[in-house]
Amino acid sequence: LSWRDIESGFLIRFLIALEMQGEEYKDRTYVSGEQTSERTTLLRKLTRIHRKWNRTWKIPTPDTGIFIKPLTKKDRTYQFRMLHAVLERYNEFAKACIQSNEAQTNEHVSMVHARLPMLVQKLALIYAASDPNSKPFWNFGTIKMEHLLYAIRDLDWYRKHMIDLVLQVGASEIEHLIVELYTYLYKKKRASR
User: Fold this and answer.
1) What span, in angstroms and rounded, lies between the C-alpha atoms of 86 and 94?
2) Within 10 A of 102 (CB to CB), how many other CB atoms are there?
3) Could you tell me the pLDDT band of residue 90, with boundaries at 50, 70 and 90?
4) Rounded to whole angstroms, what are the CA distances from 160 to 56, 95, 105, 118, 125?
């Protein structure tokens, strides 16, 4: 998900309102004043959400009078293809992310590494779309090896900073050990002060 999904109303289209607790069975003809009031309140809230998120978004750019707008059916969408060698290199990168020693030994690092292949793919797409030397083949732009390698290089900086952040914020090994011991003792009903 991205901010565009929220701005475009993508999330609101899948909103389901459910009651937290069920009520006793009542005939369909019976509706209390409280139920009517709750329905009216819910309808007002949903209407307000619909009004807010149903508007077409546009983002101003530094150039006056130019806005970034969502694509419509008339706009041509970007489509890309990955050459075989580039796809193989991408798959090697994805496998290396999962099988790295850091990811095997620390679950927080493995969570960061699990997101890297998707981020590399998105970054490579951005590099391919912004490359003036990349000419479309039929209706497809081509992701070249250089786009993928630049994406991997740039994402490595992000990876290092994210791992540092996650390890500083996350629990240390001793804290994990204490939680495991406490859980074990609690389950065995031998916990004492």
Assistant:
1) 12
2) 15
3) very high
4) 37, 18, 16, 17, 22
